[in-house]
């Protein structure tokens, strides 16, 4: 006798690696791209969407003569909340149109770092999706700061979608930018649900050198073996940077193999260092033309 449909569904959901996906809105036009991409992931993995809408509340101004808060601020707060409620209602309609469960969570940031508040909320999800804005340098810089905080403080992988992303989902091919670091290992583990569904996964080592377990000519064999044990059709590639940054080498190779997804560790050299002199994470965030899954 076959099991009841409700029991079969329950077992299927229990086996789903991602049950809740956070969508971090940046209040730009690219939010629609993030929501659409996250909706596609949610449909594939029977997951629920948790859309994080940050509402930045200005600190009350103190009247220097009366020494009391400006009495107009309660109305300012209410107007901001009304606008957030209207925006949330529109987003809920978009979620319903995609046919996936989900809701909008408005996070009021008063006297607290907004991105840290969002990172706290994202800890209760399995994956964070964020779209890189296309508007202007200031908007992208703000989104990059938001992304960096989410990556460092949420403890969750962050999947960054480029603006105007037109690539089909799920991706048929993926590129794993592998280095012998804890960040790369975490990114690889986080990305396994997607990699297991790809037709081909290329593991790329840029300027490989020997480590404690592998000679230079054997670099990457361990990660290749690990992926194949998970049923991933993985292949090993190496390349030399030849004057390019590591990020540029990764993106060029992704184009060469027609990868629809890049997997990379984030901020392996520290956030401050990368902000000051640049680095692979920064290059991939600002320039990648395909979605990138980061983990720290």
Task: Walk me through the structure.
This protein has 296 residues and is α/β, with parallel strands linked by helices. The chain folds into 2 domains: 17-161, 3-Layer(aba) Sandwich (Rossmann fold), CATH 3.40.50.620; 173-295, 3-Layer(aba) Sandwich (Rossmann fold), CATH 3.40.50.620. Helices cover 43% and strands 19% of the residues. The chain is built from 10 helices and 10 strands. It has helices at 5-14, 31-45, 73-98, 114-122, 137-153, 182-195, 221-229, 246-256, 271-277, 280-287; strands spanning 20-24, 48-56, 102-109, 127-131, 158-161, 173-177, 200-206, 234-239, 262-265, 292-295. A 10-stranded mixed β-sheet has the order 3-2-1-4-5-10-9-6-7-8, sandwiched between helices. Helix 5 (137-153) links the parallel strand 4 (127-131) and strand 5. Helix 4 crosses helix 5 (137-153) and helix 8 (246-256) crosses helix 10. The termini are far apart. The relative contact order is 0.13. Belongs to the universal stress protein A family.
